Amino acid sequence: MGGRLVVFEGVEGAGKSTQLLRLRARIEQSGHACVIFREPGGTLLGDWIRDGVLAKDWAIDPRAEAHLFMASRAQLVAGEIRPALERGACVLLDRFFLSTYAYQIGGRGLGAEEVRVANRLATGGLVPDLTLLLAIPANVGLSRAEHRGPTDRMERAGSVFLQTVADAFTRFATPEWQSQHPEAGPIATVDAIGSPEEVEQRIVAVMAARLPGLAAKTERVA
After folding, report:
1. For residue 43, which of 114, 122, 149 has the smallest C-alpha distance?
2. Is residue 4 within 8 Å of residue 211, measured between CB atoms?
């Protein structure tokens, strides 16, 4: 089996990090190599950008913010993701360009077509094999994020901003939006309310239907 790119998306506190690790365990249990990256980050440049964009409290113009995320993405795709896919590995990615569409277009109000063009340059046309959109109300996700530790700049943007982002993700799940955005690839919505084990089982069911043979269906290994 060739390499596969599976992206996890959703609002803050949706549980992406937890489910990424659980899915990697299942994929490796099935005998496939698997690596995890996050956006922004995954490279020296990307980690530097992540610190500057998310960890600092300074004001950043929305256009500058978008370009920084794109720079991190371009470096990650060229330096890590494409080589891993070419080796036949499964790449699990914590956020990709749907987050840019949700946060920078939906939340910041940037021009949709301008962002799509910039994203094509950053990704080199790379299309995910599957995006798992973890669905959770914005207020629930924010509460989770606040309880897990210090919040980042996006999490501190306020409930109105985060609800706008959540509404954008909801639009992405519709067949109409997906038919107009082939660059996004297939998107599957997963109910992220419930225990980690319950959410994991929903993800495994989606994987079995969309990418059969990639994730073990047996009981999760620790």
Report:
1. 122
2. yes
Q: Which CATH number fits domain 4-210: 3.30.450.40, 2.60.40.420, 1.20.1300.10, 3.40.50.300?
A: 3.40.50.300
Q: Which amino acid is at 197?
A: E
Phi first, then psi, for residue 191 (nearest 5°) are: -65, 115
Task: Give this prediction's pTM.
Answer: 0.91
Give burial (CB, 10 Å; 0-12/13-18/19+) of 99. Answer: buried
DSSP of 63-122, one letter per residue?
Answer: HHHHHHHHHHHHHHIIIIIHHHHHTT-EEEEE--HHHHIIIIIIIT---HHHHHHHHHHH
Say how far apart CA 8 and CA 131 lie, in whole Å.
6
For every one of its 222 residues, what pLDDT tens digit does the chain have, with 9 covering 90 and above? Answer: 579 999 999 988 889 999 999 999 999 999 999 999 999 999 999 999 999 888 877 889 999 999 999 999 999 999 999 999 999 999 999 999 999 999 999 999 999 999 999 999 999 999 999 999 999 987 776 677 666 666 666 766 677 888 899 999 999 999 999 999 999 999 999 999 999 999 999 999 999 999 998 987 655 544
Neighbours of 83 (CB within 10 A): 14
